[in-house]
Amino acid sequence: MDNNNLYGQGNQNAEQGPQQPYQQQVPNQPIPNPGFDNNNQQQSYNQYYQPYQQTQQSYNQSYQANTDLEEPVSFGDWMLSTLLMSIPCVNIIMMFVWAFGSGVKKSKSNYFKAMLVWMLIWVVLWFILMIGIGGMMAAISESYY
């Protein structure tokens, strides 16, 4: 039993007559409106659609700018870099050149910046270890005298 009928309201859809079928609106086309002439309709359409178009254009431009990828570092360039990194003293100099030099590809520059940070961490840890070993050696030599 329908709850609406319990309260004497009846079927409201039957009183309103036939319903219009659902029509899907197609984007980028004006919606026909029989109450206005075509000029007012086009003005109304342009008023609401043009800001949307401008937003889409600015989004597309910023997306295009963000997707411009740099050419990757070549295999031969990495082979040469690895060879130079195996030469003592040259490796430290080349790390600074590739990390902070101009004309170096961004991925290679970031890699060598990270390598310099790791090198600094290991040097600091080495000094801490040497100070600790030196302190232990001093304590041991004191105990013999």
Task: Provide a descriptive summary of the structure in words.
By secondary structure, the chain is mostly helical. It has a domain at 75-144. It has 6 helices and no strands. It has helices at residues 3-6, 12-16, 38-66, 75-85, 90-100, 106-144. α5 packs across α6. The chain is elongated and about 105 Å long.
Which spans of ≥5 residues are poorly predicted at pLDDT below 50? none
Count of beta strands:
0
Q: Structural class given helices, strands, pairing?
A: mainly alpha
- Globular, elongated, flat, extended or rod-shaped: what is the shape? elongated
> What percentage of the residues does DSSP assign to strands (E)?
under 5%
List keywords for this structure.
145 residues; 6 helices; mainly alpha; 0% strand
Concise summary:
The chain has a domain of 70 residues. Helices cover 68% and strands 0% of the residues. It has six helices and no strands.
Topology diagram in text:
Blueprint: H1 3-6, H2 12-16, H3 38-66, H4 75-85, H5 90-100, H6 106-144
Helix pairs in contact: 5-6
